[in-house]
Amino acid sequence: MRNVGLDVLRFVAVVMVIFCHLHTAPPMPPSALAFLTSGGGLGVTLFFVLSGFLVSGLIFGEFDRRGGVDVGRFLVRRGFKLYPPYWALLALNTVVALASLTPANAGEFWTSLGIRFLFLQNYFPRLFDHTWTLAVEEHFYLLLAGLTALFLRPRSPRPFAFVPAFFLLTALVCGAARVWAAAGGGELGPADWAKTQYHIDGLFFGVWLSYLRFYHDLEGRLRAVPTWLLLAAGCVAAAWLPHVVLQIGPFGRAPAAWIRYLGAGLVVLAAFRLVESRIAAVRGMAFLGQTSYSTYLWHGWVNVLVVNVLERLAGRCDPWLYIVAYPVGAFVVGVVMHRLLEAPSMWLRDRWLPRGEGPPAASRSEGAGRS
Question: What's the pTM value of the predicted model, to 2 decimals?
Answer without folding.
Answer: 0.94
